[in-house]
């Protein structure tokens, strides 16, 4: 057991484990679709994807940090940002930098088709605020918390591109323009975690940009 714990603490094991968790995070939702509980077009499918992500890529890493790594979750960014005023400024600047790109992408037909949620205001609000908020909270903890701080001691600044590459690979299959943007956005989000010692600013940026994208697609 002790040997297993030591292996799981290595950077390669953290990368592999994180990738496996992301890969299976939507499995509960697809399992229920397979048994006819709901369809992929239902709001409940999207909510289950978010709930599955919360359980698999948030709660499981928290369990690993506490029970296997024997560390505090605050060591992995699960805390309020240090130097709150600086964190607010950096978060706002990051949003402003990527906001024009988000508006542009939302106007493209490929994005409008991929992210179309139908003409239902309730569905849009429920997805954008509830489901996506829960999902991005979980996703950012895995990438900008568990993975970033888990790799930092060993890889230092190489952690930026390693995490961004993994993050980008999981976005393959989305509109082509989103793929390169994902890499650079990930670098910015890693920088936020590095400067603030918290994954919370990354959540705020990711959620805000996704919400703007959905607003552009839905209303414009």
Automatic annotation (TrEMBL):
Any single GO BP term: CAAX-box protein maturation
Highest rank taxon of the organism: Bacteria
Keywords: Membrane, Transmembrane, Transmembrane helix
Protein's UniProt keywords contain Membrane: yes
Single GO MF annotation: endopeptidase activity
Transmembrane segments: 12-37, 43-65, 86-110, 122-143, 155-173, 199-219
UniProt cross-references to Pfam families, sorted A to Z: Rce1-like
All copies of domain CAAX prenyl protease 2/Lysostaphin resistance protein A-like, residue ranges: 125-209
InterPro entries named among the record's database cross-references: Rce1/LyrA-like_dom (IPR003675)
Protein known as: CAAX prenyl protease 2/Lysostaphin resistance protein A-like domain-containing protein
